[in-house]
Amino acid sequence: MSSERQIHIPASFLALYTPAGHVRPTPPRQWLEDRHDLCEDLSQLLAEKVKDKVWQLGITKADALAKIERGLPALSLEMNEAEQTWVMTRVQEILEF
Questions:
Q1: What pLDDT was estimated at residue 4?
Q2: What's CA 4's distance to the chain center, in Å?
Q3: Extended strands (E) in 5-66
Q4: What distance in Å separates the CA atoms of residue 91 and residue 23, rounded to the nearest whole number?
Q5: Do 68 and 91 meet the contact criterion of CB atoms below 8 Å apart?
Q6: Nearest Cα to 13, choosing from 41, 54, 52?
Q7: Which residues, 6+ apart, have CB-to-CB distance to 37 below 8 Å?
Q8: 69 phi and psi, to 5 degrees?
Q9: pLDDT digit string, tens, across residues 7-38
Q10: pLDDT on residue 1
Q11: Which has the least CB within 10 A, 3, 62, 83, 93?
């Protein structure tokens, strides 16, 4: 795979797979790109879902975010806890929460 095809993976995501005391993540680059794509796509989708819930239910962003976060494990995406936390942090960034 040429370097021009590689996507930018944020340091915050790479940190999820970089063991303490190391400077590089342990999984292969392609795997990291695939996982990041999944998490980023999910973050974008969930940010839209938060906006929808605020509008539909007349609740606060914080309440909508909490509801979505509680439902995240039920999606069966085989995401570990660190990825789920990263996704919810990213959703907040998207919403400028």
A1: 57
A2: 23
A3: none
A4: 26
A5: yes
A6: 41
A7: 7
A8: -65, -40
A9: 899 999 999 999 999 999 999 999 999 999 99
A10: 45
A11: 3
Amino acid 28: pLDDT? 97
Residue 49: is it exposed, middle or buried by C-beta count within 10 angstroms (0-12/13-18/19+)?
A: middle
Nearest CA to 12 among 62, 65, 82? Answer: 82
Whether 42 contacts 77, CB under 8 Å: yes
Helices (H), 1-97: 11-14, 29-57, 61-71, 81-95
46 vs 90: CA distance, rounded Å: 10
Residue reference for tokens 């938060």: 50
Residue 32 C-alpha from the chain's centroid: 13
Question: What residue type is 65 in one-letter code?
Answer: L
